[in-house]
Amino acid sequence: MKNKVLFAALAVVAMASCTTIEQKVPSTGTDAVISFFPLVANAPKKNFRFAVFAWHAEPRLSDSTTKVVKYMDNVPVTYTFDTSGIGEFKPQSTYYWPKNGTLSFDAYAPVSAHNATNPGKGEGIFSSESDKGLQIKSYKVADIADQYDLLYSERTLNKKASTEGSIDGVYIAFKHALAAIAVTAKTNEDYSDAIKLTKITILKAYGTGEFNQNMSDGYTPGNPEWTAVSTEVDYVLFEKANGVALTETELSSNAILLPQRLDHDNNKVSIKVDYTIKCDGGDLAQTQTFELTPRSGSEESGASATLTSWEMGKKYTYNFIFSLEEVFFAPSVAEWSDVAVFANNVN
Asked: Could you give the CA distance from residue 100 to residue 66 in angstroms, rounded to a whole number?
């Protein structure tokens, strides 16, 4: 019966386009080592590394008067195999379940996103507070080539053992902390390679910010948000000097960026598309820039009248469809102009 329940859970996950990771825990008693069961999106388990914070409460984390002690502080977790060949997600160092009280967990991924001393692009300072949950300071979005899916977990509350029901390992439910942006380009018909795409750039998107899970008491889910977003950056999603011929098949480029309003104090987030059109003199360079929100009181072509922000955990797809107007002519010939000529009389 246990297996049937597990398979049913996996079926639901599959419909949600995620992948679960199974592992066995040697014991379910209070002497068992702590291990985890993360729910992650399409991540090979042997390559997936995350970090956890654990808070011990006695008897449980349920009110503001409970004594809470940090039990695990930003501890990396990796997928490892024991001597019998059984794989499981375990902390880098061995941790055991306390005899009394419960443990509650916060987590984030990947581990490499944390830089406690000098955060750079794609890094920040990760911490956890017993009453507020996960926090990220000084986070900077990575360059396009180095981007990754930044994940954070809902707090897993009041656990006494790794195994519970059909789940072997402390269940960690990850969510996306950033927004996914996809830009597609294609033609509306076959133009015989007349159009070549050379560059796609997202202009003036904020690249730095701070994240707070915003729990109010340590056990009630908060309203996670990014604040102090700033530092406008241009992100080049695609670039090829000689261009790529556009056809009716979509060409897609992607980015993972900070959630933010699209109308900043001084600028609006835009997408710039550079392309060429074939002509007798070679390839004629063209460019179009599309603001992602309309200016006040305008009906700007290409701007969304309703989308004002990118939000966490959402994917936004911008489709650009190129069309060409064929050059043709409407010739006309001017009428003759009559000119009066005076002639001499001939006798």
From this structure: 13
Residue for token pair 């996960």: 134
Return d(Cα 207, Cα 119) in angstroms, integer: 13
d(CA 197, CA 240): 8
SS (H, E, C) 165-181: CCEECEEEEEEECCEEE
Q: Is the pTM of this model over 0.70?
A: yes
Residue with tokens 């650009």: 320
Q: How far apart are CA 179 and CA 150, in angstroms?
A: 10
Alpha carbons 269 and 204: distance in angstroms, whole number = 5
Q: In 149-179, which positions are buried (b, 16+ CB within 10 angstroms) versus exposed (e)? A: bbbbbbbbbbbbbbbeeebbbbbbebebbbb
Report how far Cα 240 is from the mean position of its chain's Cα atoms: 24
Give the span between the Cα atoms of 340 and 343, in whole angstroms.
10
Task: Look up tokens 């209070």; give the residue.
Answer: 30
Measured CA distances, 305 to 203, 295, 313, 322, 345 (Å)? 19, 9, 21, 21, 81
Strand partners, 212: 135, 225
Residue 82 per-residue DSSP state? -
214-220-221-224 Cα dihedral, nearest 10 degrees: 0
Widest distance between CA atoms in the chain? 141
**How would DSSP label each residue in 279-323?**
ETTEEEEEEEEEESSPPTT---TT--SS--EE-TT-EEEEEEEE-
Q: What are the tens digits of pLDDT across the range 254-299?
A: 999 999 999 998 899 999 999 999 999 889 999 999 999 865 544 4
